[in-house]
From TrEMBL:
GO terms for molecular function: GTP binding; GTPase activity; ribosome binding; translation elongation factor activity. Its EC number is 3.6.5.n1. It is found in: Cell membrane. Transmembrane segments: none annotated. PROSITE patterns: G_TR_1, G_TR_2. The keyword Repressor does not apply. This is Elongation factor 4. Gene3D superfamilies: 3.30.70.240, Elongation factor 4, C-terminal domain, Elongation Factor G (Translational Gtpase), domain 3, P-loop containing nucleotide triphosphate hydrolases, Translation factors. Required for accurate and efficient protein synthesis under certain stress conditions. May act as a fidelity factor of the translation reaction, by catalyzing a one-codon backward translocation of tRNAs on improperly translocated ribosomes. Back-translocation proceeds from a post-translocation (POST) complex to a pre-translocation (PRE) complex, thus giving elongation factor G a second chance to translocate the tRNAs correctly. Binds to ribosomes in a GTP-dependent manner. GO terms for biological process: positive regulation of translation. GO terms for cellular component: plasma membrane. Keywords: Cell membrane, Elongation factor, GTP-binding, Hydrolase, Membrane, Nucleotide-binding, Protein biosynthesis. It comes from Copranaerobaculum intestinale. Residues 4-186 form the Tr-type G domain.
Amino acid sequence: VDQKHIRNFSIIAHIDHGKSTLADRILEITDTVQNREMKEQLLDSMELERERGITIKLNAVQLNYRAKDGETYLLHLIDTPGHVDFTYEVSRSLAACEGAVLVVDAAQGIEAQTLANVYLALDNDLEILPVINKIDLPSAQPDLVKQEIENVIGLPADEAPLISAKSGLHVEDVLEQIIKQVPAPHGDASAPLQALVFDSLYDAYRGVIAYVRIKEGEVKIGDKIRFMATGAEYEVLELGVHTPKEVKKNILHCGEVGWIAASIKSVKDVRVGDTITFAERPAAEPLSGYRQLNPMVYCGLYPIDSAKYNDLRDALEKLQLNDASLHFEAETSQALGFGFRCGFLGLLHMDVIQERIEREYNIDLIATAPSVVYHAYLTDGSMTLVDNPSMLPDVSKIDHIEEPFVKASIMSPTEYIGPIMELCQNKRGFYKDMVYLDDTRVNIIYELPLGEIVYDFFDKLKSCTRGYASLDYELIGYQPNKLVKMDILLNSDIVDALSTIVHRDFAYHRGKAICEKLKKLIPRQQFEIPVQAAINGKIIARSDIKALRKNVLAKCYGGDISRKKKLLEKQKEGKKRMKSVGSVEVPQEAFMAVLSMD
Ligand code: GDP
Ligand code: MG
């Protein structure tokens, strides 16, 4: 292939605006996927993606398109997730492309992540092609949305194709615009190899597979390659592309996007963002790679079966292969034993990693309540980072505590301005600005404690705006506040995994709610269990779990064996998720009880 006939592009959009559906249509139009193999959101191949209807992982596909100019082009399409927690996936996809198709829902208009993704594309110097989708909907307002794109983003939208990704209407126009407007790659095929590793995964048989964009030079089977950041050297055993089926090739040309396997057994040798070059004729410098993202929330992950501790480490290492935003280090909890403190970009990210560990690696987990990172300033003038509330130094040593603040951008129809402002006020927010996107929609800017956003902000925002508001946020710094550690005691013992850091003014209310919730979640046992919330050793709330009186099986009158079996099975099912904390059996949900209580 001649580089002039290659186009590399991503599809970016706010969640649910139709990226994956557009990718489906493009695969169909280009005959990449036969009709009988077609299914909706084909590229969302992970089980979890299909169940939840969201894209979590980026996906790269090679396709051939015969354009109206009579020439055949080689396109690489990278589908990306839209949720704020997966921005990291998006930024990695974009670094492998020259253009981005920006999909905007004709009925919804620009949302918070539409803007966030545009900024990412601009950071990567990409050509941005706006496309207005879902024009088949009766509520579609394509002209208004065009206006928004021009006014808010500042991109000309006159030429934007008006499409229905669902029916396929005008999708071909999108392909024609990609050919005409997205620049072809311009690497030097004879230069020393520079391949950007934008993703990787672990294959049990072939080791680590690196997904690459060839920026300079080309790579063949048998070539000796070096990962520039880690210095690891290997011989290329296999390479190829996805269509989306895996197709093996003998060579990856300059400008192409594909995969490389080299029997790499050590996951540490491959870092996403690294540059692959030749071992013998190396490039002078690596490509610029990616910005390191720091986790926003932390939680403890503990295997229910403590024998699975090493398996859990292994699973985390493999997941980290293509997710550098996932952090972890070993920690021990008095209540839960040996586990890992893990850092995530947000709650959805945390949830997804947890589920992937359980499904893909078969390890049942207990997750502790998520926490942000606090700065504890001590009386001796030093400062410690606290990502685990139970590790907060003793109050007598603390001068003051600072918490992370974010700048939040909330886009919504104007009729919800009132409820949104009330919510932000209740979450200790500071009003900053309000910008009208058009006559009916606004962008409201608040500064809020990240801890409150992690808590239940997003759910509350969705419910007070009937799902119409969208949220994006970025960390802006730390601010001091009246923060205290609240401990939870079960049967008079502090359960370290249930400690949280709360604002003093909210402590009493939250302590009471947690005690009530735990009372509901923890099954009755042979003895009465007091549940207490305490600050600095002083009890501020209490509820009691009454002792068990009846034997459940007594109800079965001995005769009905199958019913008895069922009951026992049900109890076992419940037990699976239990962890003994001292003398008390505590279910998984209890550790999340400190979140969203009302
Ligand atoms: P993504 O989150 O951006 O990948 O969005 P999806 O492609 O998963 O689409 C989200 C929802 O919008 C799905 O239920 C699609 O069926 C629907 N959808 C996508 N494109 C269209 C369209 O052109 N018209 C209509 N009516 N619905 C669409
Ligand atoms: Mg999708």
